[in-house]
Amino acid sequence: MRFEVIFAGIGGQGVILAGTLLGEAAVRCGLKATQTQAYGVSARGGFTKTDLIVSSEEILYPYSLNPDLIIALAEEAFVRYIDVDKDTCKVIYDSGLIDVDSLGLGLDKRFVGVPITNMAIELGSPRSVNILSLGIAVSFIKDISFDALREILSETFSANTLEKNIEALSKGMELGKSIF
Fold first, then answer.
1. What string of H, E and C letters represents the secondary structure of 84-140?
2. What stretches pass through the bilayer (predicted)?
């Protein structure tokens, strides 16, 4: 089993944290994981991404060359991956922030628009976009347990934000199950 996942967005959306949490949970579930990250020239507002590889086998190269899943949370990130070459790569994009019609793109069935930011706002936690995305990714991989993720979240977030993040994770997993 091997999955290559890319979380991409702009600085401040928490894509690096989502990748880190997913990698830590994978390791707790007995899998191997690598996570790399790249930032644009500005810390906030510039392009940011993290590549995550989760595998039951040894991982020899830490960057995603053949992604299975890309989650794009900003137009700049989406445009960078519009030409993804792999036919089986699923690209989830935030349809609340990315207007594909205005970009004039003809997208195939690999591309799925989900109003991730709007859903986070409806949950009362606009900053949990990354955790919703994490839930979507976990439902794609399936070999990472909810309990491992809940444990990681409880070690990462304060008590006053933990419940909202667990709710966002659950919502993301539920949403992912309807996509995959």
1. CCCCCCEEEEECCCCCHHHHCCCCCCCEEEECHHHHHHHCCCHHHHHHHHHHHHHHH
2. none
User: Cα–chain-centroid distance for residue 62?
Assistant: 17
- pTM over the 0.85 mark: yes
Backbone angles phi, psi at 20, to 5 degrees: -65, -45
Look up residue 137 and give its amino acid.
A
Which residues span the domain enclosing 51?
2-179
User: Mean pLDDT throughout 88-112?
Assistant: 89
Q: What is the CATH number of the domain that holds 125?
A: 3.40.920.10
Task: Please tell me the total count of domains within the chain.
Answer: 1
180 near 68, Cβ under 8 Å?
A: no
Does the pLDDT at position 43 exceed 60? no
